[in-house]
UniProtKB/TrEMBL annotation:
InterPro entries: 4Fe4S_Fe-S-bd, 4Fe4S_Fe_S_CS, ET_IronSulfur_Cluster-Binding, TAT_signal
Endpoints of the signal sequence: 1-26
Residues passing through the membrane, by range: none
Gene Ontology molecular function: any one: 4 iron, 4 sulfur cluster binding
Pfam families linked to this entry: Fer4_11
Protein name, UniProt field: 4Fe-4S dicluster domain-containing protein
Length: 228
């Protein structure tokens, strides 16, 4: 009886020690991951003062990322005309993923299909893990996610992470813009064009009061109604 009790206590201690060791190891690993934080955080600026509403960005995105008809990763919304003839003008705004640092879509995903890429800060979707529950679509305050009719998975702009970026290029929309209304780059690089433009211009982000910390910035047109 005494031997049985000793074996039990010994086994319990071993389990406790193992659990404690695992906990300590997890703490060390977590600490290491913090230290190894990426030095890249991609963001984009849409300069509405330069945008002419040509929609070249929409076409380039569709072709590069094989986006099916009927859905879109990026679209340009036109409002207006404002003013009086012959001085009428329109307002063009970009509608696409905001690549939030605290992304509601990622927080609600039950399978981990929606995730933030640790290397780039890009909010992305693993189509193989997506079960089409549409929780992310309901959670997105910007209403830009959709179910891809071909893959049957949640889809949206990913800054061309798996296409152009993987080839060392700029996102397709940026390359296609004829007026250079789009600027893409690394928020953590003080020498990047993106950071320089942000420093030189007042910008706005959508629904910042929600605490999502979006990484899509807009430079408002100098004339015309402000559309939020």
């Amino acid at each position: 009886m005494e031997n049985s009790k000793r074996r039990f206590l010994k086994g319990t201690c071993a389990l406790f020690a193992g659990a404690t060791g695992a906990s300590l190891l997890a703490t060390v690993n977590a600490s290491d991951s913090v230290k190894a934080e990426s030095d890249i955080k991609y963001a984009m600026i849409h300069d509405e003062a330069k945008c002419i509403g040509c929609r070249a960005c929409e076409v380039a995105c569709r072709e590069t990322n094989q986006v099916p008809e009927g859905v879109s990763r990026v679209r340009i919304e036109q409002t207006g005309p404002f003013g009086e003839y012959p001085n009428e003008y329109y307002h063009f705004s970009r509608v696409s993923c905001q690549h939030c640092e605290d992304a509601p879509c990622v927080n609600v995903c039950p399978t981990g299909a929606a995730f933030i890429d640790k290397e780039t800060g890009i909010v992305s979707v693993n189509a193989w893990k997506c079960v089409g529950c549409q929780y992310c679509i309901a959670a997105c305050p910007y209403k830009i996610r959709f179910i891809n009719p071909v893959t049957h998975a949640a889809d949206k702009c990913d800054f061309c992470r798996e296409t152009n970026l993987a080839q060392g290029k700029q996102p397709a929309c940026v390359e296609a813009c004829p007026t250079k209304a789009l600027v893409f780059g690394n928020l953590k690089d003080p020498t990047s064009e993106l950071v320089q433009v942000l420093r030189a211009n007042p910008t706005q982000r959508a629904k910042v009061a929600l605490g999502t910390r979006p990484k899509l910035f807009r430079i408002l047109a100098k004339s015309g109604e402000v559309i939020l």
